[in-house]
Amino acid sequence: MLRPQDPGGLNRDETTMGDMLKARGYRTMCIGKWHLGRPNEYLPTSRGFDEYFGIPYSNDMNPPVLMHNTDVIEQAADLESLTRRYTEQATKFIEASKASPFFLYMPHTFPHIPLAASAKFRGKSPRGLYGDVVEEVDWSVGEVLRILRAFRTGALCPADWAPGAATLTSEDDWLEKVFPNLAGPELESLAERAEKLSFDAGDTIVAEGDPADRFYVIARGEVSITRRSPEGDEIELETLGPAQFFGEVGILAETRRTATVRAIHDVELLALSWQEFQETLEQSDRTKRDFSEIVQERLAAKP
Fold first, then answer.
1. Cis before residue 114, ω within 30 degrees of 0?
2. Where in the chain is the domain with CATH 3.40.720.10?
């Protein structure tokens, strides 16, 4: 184990994964604990990584500096915000790497002691501070996976992909964005059953008060969501685009359509019957919980 004052680090003759992948055109970044040498010549930026952000050893060692590349940006790292900032750096790196393959190495500082959690997670776990810290790390991993699914970057990008073009290219891709907890076979089966629909700009896709018989995922274009006020005025609630969805409120609340949806541009949709949607939720307790929370939020937006 290397300490902050040690003059050496990982043997210079060793080849890291960062070295190997950077030589093959990958963008590389290390976020978190390094522990392989504090002198600049042993930091990640000298060992195959384009960028580094983190505490270069355990957070119980002094001084617990926070570094960006070779610069110390905090003499005593703010531990309560550390996991959140690691997550922000990771998502920023992934989003900036859409045009090339990349390698992100992200060894979290926590749950090494001393422990700290942000206000959003502190006091939320029945397991005390340790549980709060683990839940925040779990959230962080989930955020990174969400960005990876959304952008399908690196080796998962289509061969002809260019910045600004959609990275989701098939029914499986769109449905995986909405149902990230489904395994491959279930996802493929769902994609085969989904109905492909097209609407012209200005078309009404569903009208407030209609029977709630389908769930929709947007594959191309944008739609507007509106609702009538008690006085009869039409109020615009939001605009939805690719990989977003609508139609779940009426199905899960067992009511008629609570809003009107119109195509802003030409729109392509994937549609599931109410029965297929309900069966899909039953395959994943987490997905079912997620949709229940979304329904509560959208019903709360009622004018």
1. yes
2. 17-156
**Model pLDDT, residue 171:** 47
Give start-end residues of each CATH 2.60.120.10 domain in the chain: 171-300
Residue-wise pLDDT tens digits, 186-243: 656 677 788 899 999 999 999 999 988 888 888 888 999 998 888 888 898 889 887 7
Residues with Cβ < 8 Å from 229, sequence gap 6 or more? 235, 303
Beta-sheet strands, E only, within 17-159: 27-31, 51-54, 66-68, 71-74, 102-105
Residue 48 has pLDDT above 60, yes or no: yes
Compute the Cα dihedral for 296, 277, 271, 183 and give only its sign: positive
Distance CA 72, CA 10 (A): 21
Total-model pTM: 0.54
- Residue in the block written with tokens 């939720």: 281
**Architecture field, domain 17-156:** 3-Layer(aba) Sandwich (3.40)
Mean pLDDT (the chain, rounded): 83
Strand partners, 261: 206, 225
pLDDT of residue 12: 92
Give the class (CATH, top level) of 171-300.
mainly beta
CB within 8 Å of 42: residues ≥ 6 apart: 8, 9, 10, 36
Q: Tokens standing for 18?
A: 């960062």
Mean pLDDT of 175-195: 65
Residue 300's alpha-carbon distances to 158, 214, 293, in angstroms, are: 39, 21, 11
